[in-house]
Design brief:
The structure holds three protein chains of three kinds.
Chain A lengths: L1 H7 L3 E10 L2 E11 L4 E6 L5 H8 L7 E6 L2 E3 L4 H6 L2 E4 L11 H6 L9 H18 L15 H14 L4 E5 L7 H16 L3 E5 L3 H7 L2 E6 L2 E7 L5 H9 L17 E11 L5 E11 L3 E5 L6 H8 L7 E6 L2 E2 L5 H6 L2 E4 L3 H5 L6 H5 L10 E2 L2 E2 L1 H14 L16 H13 L5 E5 L7 H16 L3 E5 L3 H7 L2 E6 L2 E7 L5 H8 L8 H5 L2
Parallel strand pairs in A: 3-8, 3-9, 6-7, 7-8, 13-20, 13-21, 16-19, 19-20
Antiparallel strand pairs in A: 1-2, 1-4, 4-5, 9-10, 11-12, 11-14, 14-15, 17-18, 21-22
Helix pairs in contact in A: 15-16
Chain B lengths: L1 H35 L6 E4 L10 H15 L9 E4 L7 H10 L4 E5 L4 H10 L4 E5 L8 E6 L1 H15 L4 E6 L4 H17 L4 E6 L6 H13 L4 E5 L4 H11 L6 E4 L9 E2 L2 E2 L1 E7 L1 H13 L8 E4 L6 E3 L6 H15 L14
Parallel strand pairs in B: 1-2, 1-3, 3-4, 4-5, 5-13, 6-7, 6-8, 8-9, 9-12
Antiparallel strand pairs in B: 10-11, 12-14
Chain C lengths: L1 H30 L4 H13 L2 H26 L7 H18 L5 H30 L3 H24 L19 H6 L8 H18 L1 H11 L1 H6 L4 H27 L11 H12 L4 H24 L4 H16 L1 H26 L4
Helix pairs in contact in C: 1-14, 1-15, 2-3, 2-13, 3-8, 3-9, 3-11, 3-12, 3-13, 4-5, 4-6, 4-11, 4-12, 5-6, 5-11, 8-9, 8-13, 9-11, 12-13, 13-14
The chains are: A alpha/beta, B alpha/beta, C mainly alpha.
C-alpha cells in the first residue's frame, strides 16, 4: 500500500532545467526524477554540467529556466538556506570545512545560535550528532580539529552535517574520489543504509564499479544534455562509459614491455619528521629504474605526503640519502631538484600545484618562467609563455575558454590535466605522481594513464603514489606498500594479489611470502 | 524594488532638507550684504594643527578675532571673520590660498610653523595683509608679532620658588623648540633668582597632544617630592592637571597654567590647584591688529614684540599668597625697567 | 563583450560608493543643521574651481600615489605594510639631508640624488621588517608599527640635533636646484604647491604595473602572495621574495616622503605625529584594490576631498569637525564598496528572476 503511494510522488524532480552563462549553455533542459529510498547515479565527464546542475538543486545557482519539484511541489531556491530548509543537503567534493574548528563546531556551524540557550543547545546538539553517527555507522572524533583528522573523517563530518540539518535528499559529489579502498566500502554501505531509511540519494561519480554496486538508476549527461537514464541492473559498465564519453573506452591498460635501465631514483634510509617532530618516514629504501613505474600503495597518512615533500625539497630530510640520476640531492631546494629532471604532480593540486587566482599562461609557466625562452634576466617573455601554453594545453587536451581566465575557473579535471601537461611536457627523467587521477572521469583517467605510460616508454622513471589500489595495479611494474612510514613489502605487480596488498597496507605480515618483503 | 523605494525616500528627505536649510542660509546671506557695503575689513585666522579648541594658543587667537568681529557687528563667514583649521602641515598653504580667494583682507597665522606658507603667500598676494605670530617675516604686507614668553615664565618661576615647601619644582614642556625654550629658560631663571638651592626638574613629553604622557611625567615628579609643576605643553598639559588632582588627595601640590588663565582646569572637590597661569595675549594682539586694519593703520613690515611692558604677556594672581605676590610684583618691575634681562634659551643660563 | 561588462562594473561600483558616501555625508550635515548642497558645491569648487585648487589636489595626490603603490606591492606578496608612514618619513629626511649636505652640486645630480636617497632610506627602513619576517617569522605588522615610532622620534632628533643649529625645529629650505616646485609651475597654478613630483608618481605607476606584470620578480611576488605553497613548489624563494617586496614597498614610501621634502615643504621639520601620507596611502591602495591605474584615481579622490574639504568651513559656517566626518563617511563608503557590490549582485539576480517570471507567464521561453 504505502509502497504504491510513494511511487507517484518523487522526492525531487527536475523538469527541463536550463542554465546559461552568457551564450554558454551549461545545462540544457535536463530532467530527472528521484524517489525516496533510491540511489540515483549521475554520470558525466568533467565539464558535462553535473556540478552546475547540483548547484541549482542546492540553491547556489538559479536556473535560467525550468522547474524543480520537491515532493511534487514546485519550489524556488534563492539560497543554500532555502535548499536546506527543504531538506536538500549536499556533500561537496571539496569539503567546506573550517580547518581550525573542531568536528563538533563544524557540524553546528551556521545553525549554532538558533536558540538563546547556547550551552544547553550544544549538549543537545552533541547528543543528536552522536545518535546520528551511531545510527549510520559514521565514526567521528567530535573534539578533534578538522586539520588533524583524515580525509575520510572529514567526509563523514560533511555527511553528518547534512543529516544534522534533517536532509531527506542527499547529493554526493564524487564522494569516493578521496577515500581509501576500505573507506570506499564503508561509504557505500552508509549510502545503502541511508537509502533504506527512506532518503533520496543522488550520487555523482565517475566510478562505474561503484555506481554498479549501489545505484538503482543512473542518468548520464554529456555536454549539458541528458543522454539517457538507465536501470543499473541490466546495464554494463562498458555501455555506461560509452554513453558518457560518446566513444568506446578501453579499460585495459596496455603496458608494453620496456627494458628497464639504470637506477634513476635511489632512496636510502630516509627519515622525515613533521612539524610536531613526529617521525613520519623512517628507514625507507626504494629504488626506481628508468622505464619503470613503481606504485606505492598504502592507506592515506602513512608517510606518503612526507616522503613526496622530502623528495621534492618541500620538507627537510632528517636522515638518509636521496640520489637522483646519481646526483646527491638530499635536502636540495625545490628548484634544484626540478632542474635535475624531476616532475611532480602534487597530492593537493589546489594548494601546491596551481595558483587558482592566476591565469592559465602563468600557471603553465610556473616551473619554467625563470628560464629562457620564457624570460631573459628580469624580463618575462609573455609571447613565448603563451605559445608554450597553447601547445601543451592542446597536446594534453585541456579544455578552456580563454587563456587569460583564472585556473580556478577550470573544472577539477582540467586543472589536473594542466598540471600533468606542465610536468610531463618537460619530459622529466623522474616523475613523482601523487593521486594523478583523483576526481577525474574515466575518459580523463584513460588519457592521463596513457600519458604516464608513454613517459615510461620513453625511458623515464615514475613513482606513482595512489590511494586507489586499482590504479596502482593497472599501471605499476612493481608495487611497494608503505605502512607507518616505511616500505613493508615490494614485489612485481604480477606477484601480489589485491588481498595481499590489502594486508600489507593494514600492517599485517604475509606469512608465506617472506621473499616479497625482502625483494630489492 | 525595495531598494529603489529606499533610495527615493532618501532623495526626498534630502530635497526637503536642502530646501529648509537653503531658506536659513538665504537669511544669513542678506545679513552679510549689509556688511559688504562697508569697505572690506574681513579677517581670518589659519590655525596650526592644534585647532581652535586647543585651550591655549590657537583658541586664544580665535577668541580675540571673535571678540573683534562681534564688536564690529560682523558675521562668521565670508566678508566677516572666520578661521581655517589645518589638519596637517600640508594644509597651511592651501588654507591660506583659499582664504585669499574668499577675499579676506587680513590673514593671521598662529604659530611659527606657518612661516614659510605665509612668506610665499605674502609674496604672491601683495594686497592682502598677513600677520605672523611667534615668528618674523620681512615683507611690507606682513606684520610680525613675537611674545616675550620668557618674561612671564620668569614670574612663574618666582611664584613657584616663593610657594614651594619641598624646595623642588618641576617643568613639563611639550616639544623642545625655540618657543618652549623661552618658557623653560625664563622659568628656571626666575626660580634661581629667588633661591638658587631650589631644584628645577625639566621633562619633555615630546608632543603637545599626549595627556597620558603628561600625566605619567607629572606623577613621577610628585613622587619625587616636587610640589609645583609649570606645564608648557598644550594639550599634554591636561594630563598634568589630572595627575595633580589625584595627588592632591594625599598632599598639597600646585600646577602653573600656560597661555590662558587655566584656573578652571584646576577645580577639584576641595578647592583649586592652579597656582597661577602665565598669559600670552594672542587674542589681544589679534584684536588689536584687526582694529588697526579697520583704521588703515596696519603695521605691515614691522615687528611688534610684546613683553611684560606692553602687557602682551602676564601672570595671573591665582592663588598666590601675599608674599609671593609681592615678590612677583617686585621682579615684574625690575624686568620692565630693564634691570633684569630674561634669557631666551636654557643654554644661556648661568 | 564579457570583458567590457566587467570593466564597466569595475567603475560603476566606486562611483556608486562615492555617491552613497555623499548622501550619508549630506544626512549628517542636515542633522547638524548645515546645508549639504552648498557645502558640496564649495567642496568641488574648492578642489577644482581654480588652477590653484587643482594644483593643490594634484600635489596632495602625488605622495599618496607612491605610498599606495608601496602598500599594494607588499600586499601582493601577502604583507600588510603598516609602516609606510615611518618609511616615508625616513625618505623625507634622507632626501632633504642629502640636498642640504651638497648644496653646490648641479641640479641634474642633486635632484635625482636626493630622490634616490629618499627611496633608499625608505627601502632600508622597510627592509628591516622584511628581513625579520623572512628569517625569524616576526609579524611585519608589529615591527613596522614599532619602526614607525623609531622613525618619528629618530627623525625629530636628527632634525633638531644634526640638521639645524641652535635648537630650531625646521631646517632651511633645500637648494633651489633640488626643489621640485618651480616658478613656472607656481605661475601655472596660481601660486600653489604643485610640483614636478606628479610626473615621478605617474611614471612609477607605469613602472610598478610593468614590474608586476612583465618581470620574473613581479611574477614571484604575486605567486608568493596568492599561494605561498605553490610558489615554493615552483622553486621560488619565499624569503627572497618577501624581502624584495618589502624593499620595493619601502622604496616607494620613501619616494613619497621625498616628494614632501623636495616638493611640498622643501625642508623637513619636527613632526608632532607620523605623516598622514602613510595611512592615507593604505586607504588609497585598498580603495583601488591595488590596481595601479585605480590608485591614480583614488589618490586624486583623496586630494579632492582633502583640499575641497578645507573650502567648506572657509566658505560657510560649517565647522571643520563636521567636514571631517563627511569626508570620512565618503571614504568609508568607498572603502566598504563590497557592500555596494553585494547590493548590485542582489539587484541583478532579482532583476533576472523577475524576467524569468514574466517569461513563464508569457508561456515559456524560445
Amino acid at each position: 500500500m504505502k509502497q504504491e503511494q510513494t511511487n507517484h510522488n518523487y522526492a525531487i524532480e527536475m523538469k527541463n532545467l536550463t542554465k546559461k552563462f552568457g551564450n554558454f549553455v551549461a545545462n540544457d533542459r535536463i530532467s530527472m526524477k528521484i524517489k525516496s529510498g533510491e540511489i540515483h547515479g549521475l554520470l558525466g565527464e568533467n565539464g558535462a554540467g553535473k556540478t552546475t546542475l547540483m548547484n541549482m538543486l542546492s540553491g547556489i545557482l538559479k536556473p535560467s529556466s525550468g522547474q524543480i519539484l520537491v515532493n511534487g511541489k514546485e519550489v524556488h531556491l534563492n539560497s543554500a538556506k532555502d535548499a536546506t530548509n527543504l531538506g536538500i543537503g549536499m556533500v561537496h567534493q571539496h569539503f567546506m570545512l573550517v580547518q581550525n574548528f573542531t568536528v563538533l563546531e563544524n557540524i553546528m556551524l551556521g545553525i549554532e545560535n538558533t536558540s538563546l540557550f547556547g550551552i544547553l543547545n550544544r549538549q543537545e546538539a552533541k547528543r543528536k550528532i552522536v545518535n546520528l553517527s551511531k545510527k549510520y555507522g559514521l565514526k567521528l572524533d567530535l573534539n578533534a580539529k578538522i586539520e588533524d583528522v583524515s580525509v575520510g573523517m572529514q567526509q563523514r563530518v560533511e555527511i553528518i552535517k547534512v543529516l544534522y540539518r534533517n536532509a531527506d535528499i542527499l547529493i554526493f559529489d564524487e564522494p569516493t574520489a578521496v577515500l581509501t579502498p576500505q573507506e570506499v566500502d564503508e561509504l557505500l554501505e552508509t549510502l545503502k543504509l541511508l537509502a533504506s531509511e527512506g532518503k533520496a540519494i543522488i550520487l555523482i561519480s565517475h566510478k562505474l564499479k561503484e555506481l554498479k554496486a549501489v545505484a538503482n538508476k543512473t542518468t548520464i549527461i554529456r555536454r549539458g544534455k541528458v543522454i539517457d537514464t538507465v536501470d543499473m541492473k541490466n546495464t554494463s559498465p562498458e555501455v555506461l562509459a560509452e554513453m558518457m564519453v560518446g566513444r568506446k573506452i578501453n579499460f585495459q591498460r596496455e603496458r608494453k614491455s620496456v627494458k628497464t635501465g639504470k637506477a634513476v631514483l635511489k632512496i636510502t634510509n630516509l627519515k622525515v619528521i613533521n612539524e610536531q617532530k613526529i617521525v613520519k618516514v623512517h628507514d625507507l629504501n626504494l629504488t626506481i629504474h628508468a622505464g619503470e613505474i613503481v606504485g606505492l600503495a598504502g592507506i592515506d597518512g602513512n608517510g606518503q605526503s612526507e616522503l613526496v615533500k622530502a623528495l621534492t625539497g618541500l620538507k627537510p630530510i632528517e636522515n638518509g640519502k636521496v640520489l637522483i640520476n646519481d646526483k646527491d640531492l638530499t635536502g636540495a631546494s625545490p628548484r634544484k631538484i626540478t632542474h635535475n629532471g624531476v616532475g611532480h604532480i602534487p597530492e593537493d593540486r589546489q594548494r601546491f600545484g596551481l595558483i587558482l587566482q592566476m591565469n592559465l599562461v602563468e600557471n603553465a609557466s610556473l616551473q619554467v618562467y625563470n628560464q629562457p625562452p620564457y624570460s631573459h634576466g628580469l624580463f618575462l617573455e609573455p609571447k613565448a609563455m603563451v605559445k608554450m601554453t597553447k601547445e601543451i594545453l592542446s597536446d594534453y587536451d585541456v579544455r578552456y575558454s580563454d587563456l587569460s581566465e583564472n585556473v580556478g575557473a577550470l573544472s577539477g579535471g582540467n586543472q589536473q590535466k594542466l598540471i600533468i601537461a606542465r610536468e610531463l611536457s618537460r619530459n622529466p627523467s623522474l616523475l613523482i605522481a601523487v593521486n594523478p587521477t583523483r576526481g577525474l572521469d574515466v575518459g580523463a583517467v584513460e588519457f592521463i594513464h596513457s600519458q604516464i605510460l608513454k613517459a615510461r616508454e620513453m625511458g623515464n622513471a615514475i613513482l606513482l603514489i595512489s590511494y586507489e589500489l586499482e590504479e596502482v595495479q593497472q599501471l605499476s611494474d612493481r608495487i611497494a606498500v608503505i605502512h607507518d612510514g616505511t616500505i613493508v613489502g615490494q614485489a612485481k605487480n604480477e606477484d601480489l594479489t589485491e588481498s595481499e596488498i590489502g594486508l600489507l597496507m593494514a600492517g599485517e605480515k604475509l606469512e608465506n611470502k617472506e621473499e616479497v618483503i625482502h625483494a630489492h | 524594488m525595495k531598494l529603489g523605494r529606499k533610495f527615493s525616500l532618501i532623495a526626498v528627505l534630502m530635497m526637503v532638507g536642502i530646501g529648509l536649510t537653503a531658506c536659513g542660509s538665504n537669511q544669513s546671506k542678506s545679513g552679510n550684504k549689509n556688511n559688504s557695503s562697508k569697505s572690506n575689513i574681513s579677517a581670518a585666522l589659519v590655525t596650526d594643527v592644534g585647532g581652535v579648541d586647543d585651550k591655549s594658543f590657537n583658541q586664544s587667537g580665535w577668541e580675540g578675532l571673535e571678540k573683534w568681529g562681534k564688536k564690529n557687528g560682523l558675521k562668521k563667514g565670508v566678508n566677516g571673520y572666520n578661521y581655517a583649521q589645518s589638519n596637517s602641515d600640508a594644509d597651511f598653504a592651501p588654507n591660506i590660498n583659499k582664504l585669499i580667494q574668499a577675499k579676506y583682507k587680513t590673514i593671521f597665522g598662529t604659530g611659527y610653523k606657518l612661516v614659510s606658507a605665509i612668506k610665499n603667500a605674502a609674496k604672491a598676494n601683495p594686497k592682502t595683509n598677513f600677520v605672523i605670530i611667534d615668528d618674523v617675516i620681512k615683507a611690507n604686507n606682513v606684520a610680525s608679532v613675537t611674545f616675550k614668553d620668557n618674561e612671564a615664565a620668569f614670574l612663574a618661576g618666582v611664584a613657584a620658588a616663593e610657594t614651594t615647601k619641598t624646595k623642588k619644582v618641576g617643568f613639563i614642556g611639550g616639544q623642545r623648540g625655540l618657543v618652549i625654550d623661552r618658557f623653560e629658560a625664563g622659568y628656571r631663571q626666575g626660580v634661581a633668582a629667588v633661591d638658587k638651592s631650589i631644584k628645577v626638574d625639566v621633562k619633555y613629553a615630546d608632543s603637545f597632544a599626549k595627556p597620558d604622557v603628561g600625566q605619567a611625567l607629572a606623577k613621577a615628579m610628585f613622587n619625587n617630592d616636587e610640589d609645583i609643576i609649570y606645564q608648557a605643553s598644550g594639550g599634554t598639559g591636561s594630563g598634568v592637571f589630572s595627575a595633580a588632582k589625584n595627588e592632591i588627595k594625599k598632599k598639597k601640590v600646585w600646577v602653573i597654567g600656560v597661555d590662558r588663565d587655566q584656573e578652571d582646569e584646576g577645580n577639584y572637590s576641595g578647592g583649586n590647584l592652579t597656582l597661577t597661569s602665565t598669559l600670552k595675549g594672542v587674542g589681544t594682539v589679534v584684536e588689536k591688529m584687526a582694529t588697526s586694519v579697520q583704521k588703515n593703520k596696519f603695521p605691515g613690515g614691522k615687528v611688534s614684540t610684546y613683553g611684560l611692558k606692553e602687557k602682551g604677556v602676564d601672570l595671573t594672581k591665582g592663588h598666590l599668597n601675599s608674599d609671593a605676590l609681592k615678590a612677583v610684583e617686585n621682579y615684574r618691575k625690575q624686568i620692565i625697567d630693564g634691570k633684569i634681562k630674561v634669557v631666551e634659551r636654557p643654554s644661556q643660563l648661568k | 563583450m564579457r570583458i567590457k561588462k566587467v570593466r564597466l562594473g569595475g567603475i560603476s561600483v566606486p562611483l556608486i560608493s562615492i555617491f552613497l558616501g555623499l548622501v550619508v555625508g549630506a544626512i549628517i550635515m542636515l542633522l547638524s543643521g548645515f546645508n549639504p548642497l552648498i557645502n558640496y558645491l564649495n567642496l568641488f569648487s574648492g578642489a577644482l574651481g581654480t588652477p590653484n585648487a587643482i594644483g593643490e589636489v594634484f600635489r596632495s595626490a602625488t605622495p599618496l600615489i607612491l605610498t599606495a603603490l608601496g602598500f599594494s606591492i607588499a600586499n601582493s606578496a601577502g604583507f600588510f605594510n603598516v609602516g609606510l608612514s615611518g618609511q616615508a618619513l625616513a625618505g623625507w629626511l634622507a632626501s632633504v639631508w642629502f640636498a642640504l649636505a651638497f648644496p653646490h652640486l648641479p641640479g641634474f645630480i642633486l635632484l635625482p640624488g636626493s630622490i634616490i636617497m629618499g627611496a633608499l632610506a625608505g627601502a632600508f627602513w622597510s627592509g628591516i621588517a622584511g628581513f625579520l619576517r623572512a628569517y625569524f617569522g616576526t609579524s611585519e605588522v608589529i615591527t613596522t608599527i614599532m619602526l614607525n615610532y623609531i622613525s618619528l622620534y629618530g627623525t625629530n632628533a636628527i632634525v633638531k640635533g644634526v640638521l639645524t643649529s641652535s635648537d630650531a625645529d625646521s631646517t632651511p629650505l633645500v637648494p633651489i636646484q633640488a626643489r621640485l616646485r618651480t616658478p613656472f609651475l607656481e605661475k601655472l597654478t596660481g601660486n600653489s604647491t604643485f610640483h614636478w613630483g606628479i610626473v615621478i608618481s605617474f611614471f612609477m605607476v607605469f613602472v610598478i604595473w610593468w614590474l608586476m606584470k612583465k618581470t620574473t620578480l613581479g611574477f614571484e611576488i604575486r605567486s608568493v602572495g596568492m599561494n605561498e605553497d605553490a610558489a615554493r613548489y615552483a622553486g621560488m624563494s619565499t624569503k627572497k621574495t618577501i624581502i624584495s617586496s618589502m624593499l620595493l614597498s619601502g622604496a616607494l614610501a620613501g619616494l613619497g616622503g621625498a616628494m614632501e621634502g623636495l616638493g611640498n615643504f622643501q625642508n623637513i621639520f619636527v613632526n608632532t605625529s607620523l605623516p598622514d601620507i602613510g595611512f592615507d596611502g593604505m586607504s588609497v591602495s585598498l580603495l583601488a584594490t591595488g590596481n595601479p591605474i585605480g590608485i591614480i584615481f583614488s589618490a586624486l579622490l583623496f586630494g579632492i576631498l582633502k583640499i575641497g574639504g578645507l573650502n567648506i568651513s572657509i566658505s560657510s559656517n560649517t565647522p571643520s569637525e563636521i567636514v571631517n566626518i563627511v569626508i570620512a563617511s565618503v571614504i568609508f563608503f568607498v572603502g566598504a564598496n563590497y557592500i555596494i557590490q553585494y547590493l548590485i549582485s542582489k539587484m541583478k539576480i532579482s532583476h533576472k528572476s523577475a524576467k524569468l517570471i514574466s517569461n513563464s507567464t508569457k508561456g515559456g521561453h524560445k
